[in-house]
Amino acid sequence: MTIFSKIVAGEIPCYKIAETDKFFAFLDINPLVKGHTLVIPKQEVDYIFDLSDEDLAGMQIFAKIIAGAIKRAFPCIKVGQAVLGLEVPHAHIHLIPMQSEKDMLFSNPKLKLTPEEFEEIASKIRAEIKL
After folding, report:
1. CB of 93 within 8 A of CB of 81?
2. How far is CA 26 from CA 4, 15, 58, 127, in A?
3. What region does 35 belong to: left with phi over 0, alpha with psi -120 to 50, or beta?
């Protein structure tokens, strides 16, 4: 069971943004910028392109909804999307509010936020979700 599956199961706490029967969104605990969110399938799949076409499309639609909420909560030029997938063997999409392309550099220092700051960020995004 991956760390992300444990998060979905409630075995590991997270700053949940939203979920459906198939997908789950939560804040990255090592964010590049405020609002950096992960979108995952609840199904444990390592490689995003191993998802069925239907689930891959559904995950993108779910990510689009979350990205819209992030953009409204944290005004930015765009919300960038990245799929890396080497650090955790569970398919996931990074959604990152961008003021410039440099905001998407994973080599940048990560923010150090308090639990209160994480909860405030999550609340702002949740308030903007239109499912």
Report:
1. yes
2. 10, 5, 17, 14
3. left
The tokens of 22 are what?
């198939």
The enclosing H or E element of 73 equals helix 53-73
**CA–CA–CA angle 32, 81, 33 (5° rounding):** 15
Strands 23-27 and 37-41: antiparallel
Q: Which residues are catalytic?
A: 92
Report how far residue 59's alpha carbon sits from residue 101's, in angstroms, rounded to the nearest whole number.
Answer: 23
Instruction: Please state the pTM of the whole predicted model.
Output: 0.95
Q: According to the model, what pLDDT value does residue 130 have?
A: 80
Cα separation, 7 vs 123, whole angstroms: 18
Specify burial of residue 79 (Cβ count, 10 A radius: 0-12, 13-18, 19+): buried
